[in-house]
């Protein structure tokens, strides 16, 4: 069986999400995708080389098939996708990688993690910037991401997804209020 690059990246994301950078091994990934470890290394020479691919895939999935012509609907849909993923998985692959792969020993991964969050903010902001201006769009997008990521704590610690729902609602209402002004 020959595993596709997409399959390898998706499985790597799940390993990173559930085990962190340090806990995920190339051997575990090779086993999950049905490859020998040496074959996996021909596609990705290091575990670190997987990080940008995993994070790009994750962000690309968030921003696919958005409604055109309705910035509030597009923004809300992306935030709903983020919230749903954080609630269902009870962890963020980006944060897991931020804690495990953002040091001087993993510069490519550190750059990818930073790009993941800033890219997410910039793409969210771009959806609404024509309606609210670039500066306000970046503020709204950054605050929304921070709320959702923070709500993950209560989902994990208390098994309570209600804070995630409130964080999502507040973020969408904040944009709606800004648009009404």
Tags for this entry?
9 helices; mainly alpha; Tetracycline Repressor, domain 2; single chain; elongated; 80% helix; Arc Repressor Mutant, subunit A; 181 residues; 2 domains
Q: What does this 3D model show about the protein?
A:
- The chain has 181 residues and is an all-alpha fold.
- 80% of the residues lie in helices and 0% in strands.
- It folds into 2 domains: 39 residues, Orthogonal Bundle (Arc Repressor Mutant, subunit A); 131 residues, Tetracycline Repressor, domain 2.
- The model has no long low-confidence stretch (mean pLDDT 92).
- One of its GO terms (molecular function) is DNA-binding transcription factor activity.
- This is TetR family transcriptional regulator.
- It holds the Pfam family TetR_N.
Beta content comes to: under 5%
Helical/strand content category = mainly alpha
Q: What is the CATH architecture annotation of the largest domain?
A: Orthogonal Bundle
Low-confidence stretches: none
The gyration radius over C-alpha positions equals 18 Å
The separation of the N and C termini measures 57 Å
The percent range for helix content is: over 70%
The overall average pLDDT, rounded, is 92
CATH top level label of the largest domain: Mainly Alpha
CATH topology label of the largest domain: Tetracycline Repressor, domain 2
Summarize the model shown.
The chain is mostly helical and 181 residues long. The chain has helices spanning 5-23, 26-33, 37-43, 50-62, 71-89, 93-100, 107-132, 134-158, 162-180. The protein has two domains: 5-43, Orthogonal Bundle (Arc Repressor Mutant, subunit A), CATH 1.10.10.60; 50-180, Tetracycline Repressor, domain 2, CATH 1.10.357.
């Amino acid at each position: 069986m020959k595993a596709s690059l997409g399959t390898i990246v998706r499985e790597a994301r799940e390993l990173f999400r559930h085990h962190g950078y340090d806990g995920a091994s190339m051997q575990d990934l090779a086993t999950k995708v049905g490859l020998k470890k040496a074959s996996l290394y021909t596609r990705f020479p290091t575990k670190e080389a997987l990080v940008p691919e995993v994070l790009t895939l994750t962000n690309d999935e968030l921003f696919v098939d958005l409604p055109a012509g309705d910035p509030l609907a597009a923004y809300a849909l992306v935030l709903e996708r983020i919230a749903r993923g954080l609630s269902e998985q009870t962890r963020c692959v980006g944060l897991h990688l931020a804690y495990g792969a953002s040091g001087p020993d993993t510069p490519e991964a550190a750059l990818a993690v930073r790009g993941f969050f800033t890219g997410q903010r910039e793409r969210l902001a771009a959806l609404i910037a024509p309606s609210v201006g670039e500066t306000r769009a970046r503020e709204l997008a950054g605050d929304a991401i921070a709320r959702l990521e923070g709500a993950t704590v209560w989902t994990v610690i208390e098994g309570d997804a209600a804070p995630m729902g409130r964080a999502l609602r507040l973020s969408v209402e904040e944009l709606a209020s800004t648009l009404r002004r």
